[in-house]
Amino acid sequence: MRGRRPKPTALKELEGNPGRRPLPAREPRPAAVEDVTPPAHLEADAQAVWRELAAGLRAVGLLTRLDGTKLEVLVIHVAEHRRLYAELTTAIGAQHDTSRLRRGLRQEAEIVRGLATDLGLDPVARTRLQVPQEAIEDEFSEFDKAPRLFGSDRGGPR
Question: Which of 10, 19, 20, 76 sees the fewest Cβ atoms within 10 Å?
Answer without folding.
Answer: 20
